[in-house]
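BUG: 3D viewer hangs when loading the predicted structure for this chain

Environment: internal workstation, default settings.
Expected: structure renders.
Actual: progress bar stalls at 90%.

Input used:
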Amino acid sequence: MMNKNQARLRRARSTRAHIRKLHVARLSVHRTGQHLYAQIFDATGGQVLAAASTLQKSVKADLHGTKNLAAAAAVGKAVAERALDAGIQSVAFDRSGFRYHGRVKALAEAAREAGLQF
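Structure tokens produced before the viewer hung:
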């Protein structure tokens, strides 16, 4: 029997395989009950080029809590700004098997508004 996390990782596997074939940077999102994390990996997947999370003081400075849509938008904006500083304009969005809904969607839309293309 498969538990929730194994099922999510199984769903993520095909997306990641597809992104690997595209040879583009990958914006990976991880969502826990309390926090939200976003990392941009290079095309090989071997190096983190930019990252942001609700654990960072600069991101959560003016937020009311870390598990809401405002926090997700702040993480999306921060990771997009850091990616643009690193010279990355376009990425493939890897939702890591999570539904494109709620906090994951808010993060993606905020990253797009901040100038990241995917």
